[in-house]
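Appendix B, example 12.
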Amino acid sequence: MPRSQRNDNFIDKTFTVIADILLKVLPTSQREKQAFTYYRDGMSAQSEGEYAEALQNYYEAMRLEVDAYDRSYILYNIGLIHTSNGEHGRALEYYYQALERNPSLPQALNNIAVIYHYRGLQALERGQAEISKMLFEKAADYWKEAIRLAPTNYIEAINWLKMTGRLPND
């Protein structure tokens, strides 16, 4: 049974019913409807920590989905799973792919910045000051772009940028 038919809580059931109605009403192809169903099932599995199942659904959605914008969100969610699993290199690959299809995805920019910042901290701990500086600068660049797109979403990043002199104080 598809995950979308196994939802246990009220909110998931409500979302599923609404999504099913929209899929029936909207003029989309059967392929697009299938892609959305896999994407929705992937999100459900991901929210429950079932990452292997989520990835299977996302990969199937990618196989079916042709719209670049929609693919960007699938790629972003695959990146989230790899980030959660500590696979930062793989996560970056998926975030970059998401941005290639949708350059206005501030959450992907933010997550890239978070990874570079984390790597900068690791380099500092290893005594690699120059490498950490370069990684922090990359993090700053990505955070600045994320903040440009969503000015109120990344308060901690804004504070870090100001505290480190990478963003002028107001």
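The chain has a mean pLDDT of 90. DSSP finds eight helices and no strands in the chain.
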